[in-house]
Amino acid sequence: MAQITLDGVNKVFGKNTVIPSLNLEIGKGEFVVFVGPSGSGKSTLLRLIAGLEETSGGRISIEGKDVTMTPCGERGLAMVFQSYALYPHMTVRQNMAFPLEMVGESKASTAAKVEDAARVLDLTRFLERRPSQLSGGQRQRVAIGRAIVRNPTAFLFDEPLSNLDAALRGSMRLEIMKLHQQLESTMIYVTHDQVEAMTMADRIVVLNHGVIEQVGTPQELYERPANLFVAEFIGAPKMNRIGGRIAAAMGAETIGIRPEHLRIVEGEGTWQGSVELTENLGAESHVHVLCGEAGSLVVRMAGAPSVKAGDKINLSPAEGFTYRFDHEGKALR
Amino acid sequence: MHSTPQQREGRLLLAPLVAFLIVFLSFPALVDIVYALSDVTFQTMRAPQIVGFRNFGVVLADPEFWAACWFSLRFGVLTAIIECGLGLALAIFLSPIVSRHGWTLALIMLPMMVAPSMVGLMYRLVLHEFAGPLPHYLTLWFGTSPAFLDANNAFWTLVVVEVLQWTPFAFLLFHVAYISIPAEIREAAAMDRATAWKILWRIELPMMKATIAIALGIRFIDGFRVFDNVFGLTGAGAGGSTMSLSIYIYQSFFKGGQIGQAVAASVLMFLASLVVLYGAAVLKAQLDRRRMAA
Questions:
Q1: Closest CA to A232 of A216, A208, A211
Q2: Domain with B80 in it: what CATH number?
Q3: How far, in Å, CA of A49 to CA of A36, rounded?
Q4: Which residues of chain B does A150 touch, with a Cβ-Cβ cutoff of 8 Å?
Q5: Out of A74, A85, A150, closest to residue B187 by CB
Q6: Is residue B55 included in any domain, yes or no?
Q7: Which residues are listed as membrane-spanning (chain A) (predicted)?
Q8: Cα(B195)–Cα(B180) distance, rounded to whole angstroms?
C-alpha cells in the first residue's frame, strides 16, 4: 500500500511553472531517490512533501490522510538538510533532544532516545560538543540523529552528502543504507549524483524540468531507459549517441550505445576511428575515439588502455545492447 | 638581540601608528594627569601647581558630581535597554518588508543622519512651553499640556528623544543579525514542530546573543557619555536635573574655571569605565571557561 501519495501536485512560482501536475506513489519502507540535473525540481518536490512549500494545486496524502494543508511540523516527517541546519548554539545532545522537547516528551524518555540514537550513529563521545567542533561527516550524523529520535513516518534527505568530500561521501552512503535496513522506514532522498541514486535506491524517480521522465528500479532504468534523457543520465561515462544515416538505417532518429557495450576489435569492425585520448582509472579505462560518421564515441574497457592516442582502431557494438529512440527521444522497443 | 627581516619590517610598518598614538593620545593623557593633580585655572594653564590628590577629594565630596554620575548611569542603562528592545522588535517584525524592499532601510535610518545637537535644538523648539507646536496643540485639543522640559519631566523627555534618534542604530545591528540566520535553520526548527514563538526564543534570540550584547554595550556607552543633544535641549536642566557627567565636566571646566577638578572628574570617569570593561572581560573569560569545562 502506498504510504505517501502525490495526486496532481503542481507548483508555480509567479509565472514560472516549476512542477507541472505530477502523480507519484511511495510505498511503506521504500527507499526512493529523486534524481535529476540542477533545476529539475527535485528539491522543490521534496519540499512540497515536507510542507516547506505550499502546493499550487493537487493533493498530498500520507498514510491515507490528506496533508496538503497541514503545516510541516505535523506531517510526521523528518528532514535532513544539505547544510545540516544544526542549531549552532546547542550541544549535540540538545540538538537531538530539541524535536522531542517540542512535543513535550518527558526528560527521561528524551534522554533515553537521544542516547539510543547517539549509539546507533556512533556519536556518544560527541554529545556535549557543539556543531562547530565537529567535522562535516559528524555534523551530518547529528542531523540524521535529530531526525531519528522522532521516529518519523518517513525521512526526507535533501542532497545530504553534497557538502562532503568523495571518500566521506562513500562511507556516509553506506551508513544511510545500513540505517534504512535497520529502521525499515520510508526514505525519500534527493540527489543530482546518479551513482548515489543507483546504489541506494529501491526505486529511482528521474526528474527533468519538474516532469517525471521515468520511475523504476536502478536495473530497469539502466536496462530499459524510457527515453534519451534517462538513458544519458544513468550510467557513467554517458551513453554514446549516434544520429543521422547510421540511426536511420536502424529505423530510429537516434541510437544509443553504452561505453561498456562497445568493443575494440581486431580486423574489420562496424566503425573505424582514431583514438583521441585515453583516461586510465586503474580498474578501467575510457577511450575516446573519433569515428567519421558515428562521431566521437567513448569505449569503456577493463584495466589499462591497450591503445594510445593516434592509434587507428575498429569498434563494434555488443549484440543486443543498442538502444533506439524516436524523434521525441522516446525509446523504441 | 637579533631580529628577522620580517620583524624589522613589522616594526617599520608599526612606527606611524605608534607615532600617531604618542602624539594624539599620550600627550593629552599626560596633560590630563598633570592637571588632575594641580591647582590650575585659565590664567595658570601653563604653570600648573601640583597639589596632589586634592582635586579628587573635592570632586568626590561634590554632591553634584554624584548626581551627574547617577543621571548618566540611569540614562545610559534606560536608553540602552529601551533602544535595544524596540530595535529588536522592529528588526523582527519588519524583516519581511525590509529584506524585500531595501529602500525602507534608508527611511528607518533617517533619524541617525541628524546631528545630535541639532536634534536637541529642534526638540527645544518643538517642545517649548510657549513657542512649541506640540504643547500648543496639546493645550488646544486636550486643554492641558505637560511641561516637557521642567525638572520633573526633563529626564523622560530626554530619554524619549534619545530613543527616537538611536533606536535605528540598534535596529540596523539586529536586522543584519536576524537576516544572517540561515533559512534552513528555521525550516529545520519548523520541521521539528517548533512554533514561531519557540523558534524566536529557542533558536533566533540565542543565535543573536552576541549582537544583542554588543548593541547594549554600544548604546550604554553612548547614553552614559551623552552631551550634545542634552546640552542643546535642556543644558544642565532646571536645578541641574539633566546634568550628565559630560555636562558636569564641561561646566566645571568652562563655566567654573575649575580645570583641575573637571579633569579629575574625567579621570575618575575613565577609571570607572576601565573597571567596568575589565570586569566584563573577566566575567566573559569565566563564562567561557565554565562552558569549556561542561
A1: A208
A2: 1.10.3720.10
A3: 17
A4: 192
A5: A85
A6: no
A7: none
A8: 20
Output the pLDDT for position B293. Answer: 66
Of B184, B185, B192, the CB nearest to A99: B192
Residue B130 has a pLDDT of 84
Residue A280: CATH number of its domain: 2.40.50.140
Query: What is the ipTM for the molecules in this complex?
Result: 0.87
A26-52 burial string, b = 16+ CB within 10 Å, else e? beeebbbbbbbeeebbbbbbbbbbbbb
What are the chain A neighbours of B100 within 8 Å (beta carbons)? none
- Among candidates A85, A89, A102 on the partner chain, residue whose Cβ is nearest the Cβ of B193: A102
Cell reading at A160 = 545530504
How does residue A179 score in pLDDT terms, banded at 50, 70 and 90?
A: very high
Domain's final residue, options A196, A214, A232: A232
| Angle, alpha carbons B99-B104-B109 (nearest 5°) | 110
The answer for B 175-194 residues in CB contact with A (under 8 A) is 182, 184-185, 187-194
Instruction: Give the integer Cα–Cα distance in Å for A298 and A309.
Output: 13
A114 pLDDT above the threshold of 70: yes
Domain boundary (A232, A252, A268) is at: A232
Best interface-test mutation with B: which of A70, A101, A114 has the largest number of B CBs within 10 A?
A: A101
Q: Identify the domain containing residue A250 by its residue range.
A: 237-332
Whole-angstrom CA distances from B196 to A80, A97, A232, B92, B185 are 20, 18, 45, 12, 13
Range of the domain at B97: 67-293
Residues of chain B contacting residue A85, judged by C-beta atoms under 8 Å apart: 182, 184-185, 187-188
Contacts of B202 in chain A (CB under 8 A): 98
User: How far from chain centre, in Å, is Cα B283?
Assistant: 21
Distance from CA of A203 to the nearest CA of B (A): 25
- Per residue in B265-279, pLDDT (tens digit) is 999 988 888 888 898
Best probe of the B interface among A67, A77, A102, by most B CBs < 10 A, is A102
Q: Does B194 contact A128 at a Cβ distance shorter than 8 Å?
A: no
User: Is B132 a member of any domain?
Assistant: yes
**Residue B2 confidence (pLDDT) above 80:** no
| pLDDT, tens digit (0-9, with 9 covering 90-100), for B113-146 | 989 889 989 998 899 888 889 999 999 999 888 8
